[in-house]
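Input set for joint prediction.
Command: fold jointly, output tokens.
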Amino acid sequence: MFDFLQYSFIQNAFLASAFVAVIAAVVGYFLLIRGLTFAGHALSHIGFAGAAGAVLLGIDPVFGLLFFTILAGIGIGMLGRIIRERDVTIGIFLTLSLAFGILFLFLYKGYAEQAYSILFGTILGISSINVVITALFSFATLGVLLFLFRPLLFASFDPEVAEARGIPVKILGIIFLVLVAITVSMSVQVVGVLLIFTLLVGPAATAMRLVKSPYRTIGVAAILGVSYSWIGIAIAAQTNLPVSFFIATLSFGIYGFVRIFKPSFQK
Amino acid sequence: MQKPIIELHRVSLILSGRTILQNIELTIYQGEFIAVLGPNGAGKSTLLKLLLGLYKPTSGEIKILGKDAKKGNGEIGYAPQHRTLEADLALRARDVVGFGLDGNHWGIGFPNKKRTDTINNALTEVDMLHLAEMPVGKLSGGEQQRLLIAQALLTDPKILLLDEPLSNLDITHAQSIISLISKIAKNRNITVLLVTHDVNPLLSETDRVLYMANTHSAIGKPEDVITSQELSKLYGSPIEVIHTKGRIFVIGEEM
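tokens >
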């Protein structure tokens, strides 16, 4: 039954998805408390244009993703706090970038297959070099997040007092969105552009309903994210059905279960 | 003579073309309890932000304990105008207070006994230790306010700036917050600036009131500042002040 574990593409998938699930859990927690989930959603769609553009140019899609999402992340960060009330601006911009994505893919001959993998992820097809790329970016993201942890938490909770205490709130906000951009780019390889919330928001939102302190929430979110990914890959390997379907179903199912049976912070 | 803690000299502030403050002169001394009053938009919150260095004055000079006002000043504790905290923040009462201690330090920070003790002492000071593990979203407005005060006190400041700590509180809870602040201020000998809409609950505690209106300000004992004559001069339009049953009502003030 566990024969599938000896295949190198399965091992690659396990490794890469674990890295991605961990950074998505930490970044997802901050996205939720900063009320920026829509920006995360937007970045993934903007990344679609980047990935499609890279495919057209014959470059690895992950670089197109990184390039577009990081630029957009800096852009959204520069716009600052007003952005929270400006969903329309982001919304219009992300539709435009989807449109460019579809144009790039149309111009590229292998249209359907590439679109499918960018939209829904291809973790089982991840190459060894992409595992290394994922590992490097994940460690870097995690390192920066741990370094910024307390000021970022303080600034997310109460930006005004944080600024009065000398924290560079605005710069912190921009750096955070760059980290979101990297996380989104890595996550797209696993679950694709359309299912990004299954790793980015699902585990953190579920964890918040289970435990109270920030550290524990992030820990539980990481465990949930890695479990969803690994279970998803294992079932997909047995059934030949898409991995991201299982990851998304687990993410939704567990959240729904917790939501119904454990109202947040009931003690 | 008491020691001046806050000094403003000819301070003006223009924000996006609008004059908020004009030639404000002000000296506040150590240990004073000052109620900051005035209509909406008179620049009460803005004044606090100037003291914190969040805004720079367009002209004039602001000295805090003899030094220029700047961000990151540990001598000032600040609790901004309160918004209701969401239930889903995944933060406990002690986490919120902890921000005051090391929220501005880099890195993840590890729990240790000294940190826990410091936070517990702060929680005890505002009578919140029994709710230390509660998620902040589950606490009442008054309880959340106490946490923000505890947080503001953790740098052991000489000055406490409180922006509308009494808003959304009923009279009983407002009274208990006021006596708490007053007790802390006396114990620690700190200067308090408290922005409020209604001076009445504060009349017995406040040393002086700072009344702000129409880009100007007046400071002094409540009975000297809150008079028909003084306020009419400040507003530049007729204002009537009525004293009845030990309470003060200002009539004709555009709210």
